[in-house]
Amino acid sequence: MAFVVDNSIVVAWFVPSQATVYSRRCYKRARREALFAPSLWEAEFANVMLVLVKRGLLPRHQAATVFRHAERLPLSVDREAVPSQRLFDLAERHALSAYDAAYLELARRRALPLATQDSRLERAARKAGMLLA
């Protein structure tokens, strides 16, 4: 089965300090299941890597290695245009950022479980009756 993966999970695959038992379990699943993320994931992932480098938590050369590995993930970026109003409504209804609402929207639209380490996004998915990976 496929699932939607949010940035907190993908970052945990490459940044040991963010890894959890849950993120490791998702990584094992990712080896045999399809992964999906909304198009904003690319910018969000790049921003986290940039912040880690700027704060001295990740050497620049290691960030380059992370990008090479991330590009090889079996992750399909969903490029379907989603109306801003839909994201706004979801974010408002579930007290999320519009960015997090994009992950919720994708999981709902594709009827897929969502993998996240973000507690607010997890609560929103549960409240919406969605499956978690």
Give a structural overview.
Helices cover 59% and strands 10% of the residues. The protein has 133 residues and is an alpha/beta fold. The protein has a single domain (3-120), classed as 3-Layer(aba) Sandwich (Rossmann fold), CATH 3.40.50.1010. The chain has a four-stranded parallel β-sheet. The chain is globular.
Summarize the structure.
Helix content is about 60%, strand content about 10%. It is α/β, with parallel strands linked by helices.
Produce the secondary structure layout.
Layout: E1 3-5, H1 7-14, H2 21-30, E2 35-38, H3 40-54, H4 60-71, E3 75-78, H5 84-94, H6 98-110, E4 114-115, H7 119-127
Parallel strand pairs: 1-2, 1-4, 2-3
Helix pairs in contact: 1-2, 5-6
Secondary structural class: alpha/beta
Task: Count every helix, treating DSSP H or I runs of 4 or more residues as helices.
Answer: 7
Radius of gyration over alpha carbons? 14 Å
Q: Return the domain count.
A: 1
Order of helices and strands: EHHEHHEHHEH
- Please give the CATH class: Alpha Beta
Report the average pLDDT across residues: 96
Query: What is the CATH architecture assignment?
Result: 3-Layer(aba) Sandwich
Strand % is: 5-15%
What is the CATH topology descriptor? Rossmann fold
How far from one another are the termini?
10 Å
Q: Can you say what the CATH homologous superfamily is?
A: 5'-nuclease
Unreliable stretches (pLDDT < 50, length at least 5) are none
Strand order of the largest sheet: 3-2-1-4
